[in-house]
Fold each of these.
Amino acid sequence: MAERPVVFVTRRLPAAVEARLAERFVPIPNSEDRAWTAEELVERARRADAVLTTATERWTAEMLAAVAGRVRILATFSVGTDHIDLEAARRLGIVVTHTPDVLTEATADVALLCLLGAARRAFEAQRDLRAGVWTRWSPTGYLGLELHGRTLGIVGMGRIGRAVARRARGFGMTVRYHNRRRLPPELEEGAIWHETLDELLPHCAFLSVHCPGTPENRHLLDRRRLALLPRGAVVVNTARGNVIDEAALLEALDSGRFFAVGLDVFENEPDVDHRWFTRPRAFLLPHIGSATVETRDAMGFRCLESLEAFFAGREPPHRVV
Ligand code: 8YV
């Protein structure tokens, strides 16, 4: 039998994934699930034929150049690829694969959780209940906003955006969206397309972001665009923190222009701006969009499928570069 390829696995993965990985490859594991420095990542990758990474590791052009002599493929345990310099990988001949489809439904669920959590002031209500501050039901307590009958704007109508749209229709919402290209009617399912983001925003009592965190999308929702949303809007981000100018979002919340925000992602993860923690109208989650048992297993197996195909001389199925 041919020698098993060496795979540097940057994080601890679900047990079933680690078990299958160990059967087919020789892992360089991260048993303590440490946060590696760039040097530590490079030092380990240099001893491996492949890297199975996650979005918590940044792979810059310099790092990729330093490992290119040995590493032939980088499989990321994520659908997002913004942590990898794809252009450099292409130039250096390093294949990059990701994990599309399998996390669509889980992430769409968390977008709805954020929409509901923010709109219905779930954080404030739960905080008071647990602290014993809530003493009895009140006709005027914790009044939120209803989703039913409102318009949800979706920025980025890819797989996750469309899964959110389906859920929103179930809640009786009207869906409008902005995407570079208009979708065909069977994918649009009645959603109203806006050619520009500026045209979309004034219609949206609720806004949910689902575009990739590419350099071009950095601060796509900047101060000027956030000001185009109606007063009392609810803004949700389960995509990447850098798509929204977080400081401008915080200002809009503080000034009372926005009713509430729901965030599963932040600009400088894992260093979340502490000011969010003291804002009761911010419904916050620590990047758990894909965090279900089923999805995290499926993400791991997607990575393994790609690695197995590549080392068997086949085209890896979930290739980006
Ligand atoms: C992951 C994500 O949890 O897939 C993505 O792009 O943001 C999340 O589903 C995370 O990136 C793990 O690598």
Amino acid sequence: MKKPTFLFGLLCISVAASAQGQQPQQSSASAQRPSQWDPRSTEWHYPVPPKVSPGRNMAPPSDAIVLFGGSDLSQWESAGRDNAGGPPEWTVRNGELVVAPGKGSIRTKEYFGDCQLHIEFKSPPPGEHSGQNRGNSGIMLQSRYEVQVLDGDNNHTYVNGMVGSIYKQSAPSVNAYTKNGEWQVYDIYWKAPRFGAGGELESPAIVTVVLNGIAVQNNYVLKGHTPYTGLPSYTAHGRMPLSLQDHGTEVAYRNIWIRNL
Ligand code: MG
């Protein structure tokens, strides 16, 4: 058994020495070629990406902005008609942020553009509700582009308004919702629209939506905002708050964090 190992070792040393011996010759040859043939011409070393520590078990990564971690609502304000800009009137209980029906939507104080958003939600018990009345809320990217939040457990509705849809624009590729009463996990990757100096659209918004680890929107190009009635359109804007929709049902949220991209 020792002899083959010894021979293999000799072979390796021989190959290594041979490669080392050839290296100057190869460098000399490459010097006569166009610089594009030098592999170093397509390698760069700066700027060095900053070190970020991933979160474990869906905890926020080290560079995320925690929007809701279980108790603190200081990142939020009301977006309701009657109390816009005031303190959010949603309920915090058991580490969950729960929609207070009739109190209006809420929005972040901070404005965002391109971003990665992690947010978890839980639908309330269905009761007698169905369709759009069962656990409806919404994640309003830049306050105007809605990723639908809805109970997707055996709940019939129009498909471009179901959970995972870009509201009234794009149905999800699959229904990745699990069961009523279970937490659902959204990871959303958002590229904001760009507008020219005159307000004209230069490039539309693009979104990828992952629900419970399953991609349900893959680089969907938005046609504009996501109204209940009428057609989508764009109106020029810059960075905008993230908003969560009050649609009259007690949807719960937790573990909300965002990273600027
Ligand atoms: Mg909604």
